[in-house]
Amino acid sequence: MKFNKWTVALAAGGVVSLASAVKADTAPTASNVMTALSSTTLSGYVDTSAQLNVHGQNPTVLGSPFGNGSAGAPPYTVGSSVGNGKANSINLNVVDLKLSKPQDEGQWAAGYCVELWFGPDAAGLGSTQDADPNNESTAIRQAYVALRTPIGNGIDWKIGVFDTIIGYESLTSASNPNYTHSYGFVMEPTTHTGILGSYRINDMISITAGVADTSYGFGGNTAAINNGISSPTTMAALALTAPDSWGWIKGGTLYLGVINTPSATAGSGATSVYAGATIPTPMNNLKFGASFDYLDEHNKNAGGLHDDSIWNVALYASFQATEKLSLNLRGEYLDDSSAGSFFSPSSFSIYPNNKSEEVTLTAQYNLWANVISRVEARWDHTEHGRPFSTSGNSFRTFSSAYLLAAQLIYQF
Questions:
Q1: Which domains does the chain have, with CATH numbers?
Q2: Is the pTM of this model over 0.70?
Q3: CA distance 270 to 261
Q4: pLDDT tens digits, residue range 9-26?
């Protein structure tokens, strides 16, 4: 979650993020909508980008480097094919529309949220009723009823489709420090269909627990709506927030979470373990963050019925250089023992126990009101194999990938 203003949301069970340092200073206020409930608000955003992908050990000696990375790109976002599909093009990423009524302070408070995605990124969510959700350009990001029961300090409930409870980065790109997503984000589930309860013990400690339909096996796979509960997903999280009395470290957070889907058949089920922290510093304009993701894929090998595992460590830094300019750095190390399942490599590139690194530098400048504008450079590298290919040509594969991208997001 974000520092300060998002700390309460984190404690209620959201993801941990370093995004407060990079969000637009002029974020818009949601507008009231004429409905039976006058407190319903409409908000959302339009997310666009342009990117250039280059693959190779050294992109300056490839002969024709521009546009040679149109296939086999690293997994940048939701859905295994979304990152590749945006290579060397100008893109509409997603249009987000959200209708919501937040809960008030009453003991028996109630509210709701309906958030819809339109555009290419919607296919990656998997939350559609279509037989082939990959062909869909519309998806349900969230749709839940929010309730409170007056037990102790009050238990807040979400019933329906809601964002996952783990992860340093959010599905909402504007809430993240970078344009592209981390390896850790790709390893995690994105949404669930179920029941989630959150309880705030005090200003420092909150807990979250829930149960959902059969959820996911690997990476960005999500809980399809009405997917059944024969192998239910269970989840729990603990959030710790530094109080104001702790001086400059106030608002810092430590977040721990686990999500488990049992194995129903060979090759199904997974367990995600997550730890994340946001770390303020004595310099108000400098913040750090860290995350650890561990994914255990149950019975991955249908013949041997053994588990495969992947783990990832990411470090974040955000520096608010001026009122409008922020610089954001991310570095990652990935250890994959699942024989190449993370990257979808070519037939010449499958190596078990592969290791990968990526470094991303993003500059954000908020020139226009309600608009987030970014430029980003990213380098990905695998220590074994050559998973990054040129236009699908398995005879021109590389161990390094380079990206240069620009992003504009209008929030309303």
A1: 4-411 (2.40.160.10)
A2: yes
A3: 5
A4: 333 344 334 433 334 344
